[in-house]
Amino acid sequence: MADLIDSTWHLAQTEPEMRLASFELELWRLFQGFLRWQEDCERCFNSYGLSGNDISVLHLIRARNNPKTIYDVARILNREDMYNLQYSVKKLERLGLIEKTVTKSKKMTTYAITEKGITDTDVFTTAKRNILVDLFKKQTDLKIEEVTAVLVKLKTMYDEAGQIAASYKGLGHEIIKEK
Fold first, then answer.
1. Any bridge partners for residue 98, and if so which?
2. Which residue in 43, 82, 157, 179 has the fewest CB atoms around it within 10 Å?
């Protein structure tokens, strides 16, 4: 894989840029592999046609058996694409996997898992336990807690970089001139 990223890439002219570009390529691949794993696992036992993003929303709405707003889900997943989240929620609701809940505030709609959704997420969890957890157990050199800590640090770095980039909105060429 190291030969894939070299100075011919527009994202990688120097050695540090090549290392970062290699990392980001693997990050893209990891994320897409994770989504594909979720979709393949879900398709083993139903034909809802859920995307990896839909599955994430479903599991987060069930988390802690506490109804969630779309904003709660967005915050937990570090997402800003409210339109896509709303689409997922409507899809899950239409399939009967989640439902709107009655709240005191009419301003905030919350969603809760249904019995059908509980069955779906339980089967998914069992499949995950029987397939993915076993694969992770075999990776004795992989310390999942350490990897998780690194991912948290990286998320923070990318969030900060995004905030910095957002502050240059409309002034993108100023970043180029400064370096």
1. 113
2. 179
Give the pair of three-digit tokens for residue 110: 């919350």
Residue appearing with tokens 């599991």: 59
For residue 90, give both structure tokens. 């409507």
Q: Judge residue 150's burial from the number of C-beta atoms within 10 Å of its C-beta, 0-12 exposed, 13-18 middle, 19 or more buried.
A: exposed
- Angle subtended at Cα 129 by Cα 121 and Cα 156, rounded to the nearest 5 degrees: 80
Nearest Cα to Cα of residue 120 among 80, 143, 92, 140: 92
Residue 172 confidence (pLDDT): 60
CA distance 94 to 64: 22
DSSP state of 68: B
Domain boundaries, the chain: 1-43
Q: How far apart are CA 52 and CA 108, in angstroms?
A: 25
Q: Which two tokens stand for residue 97?
A: 């996997």
Kindly give, in sequence order, each residue whose CB lies less than 8 Å from that of residue 58, ignoring residues fewer than 6 positions away: 50, 92, 97, 98, 113, 117, 120, 121
| pLDDT averages per 10-residue partition of the chain, 179 residues | 69 87 92 95 90 97 95 95 97 98 82 97 94 90 93 95 85 59
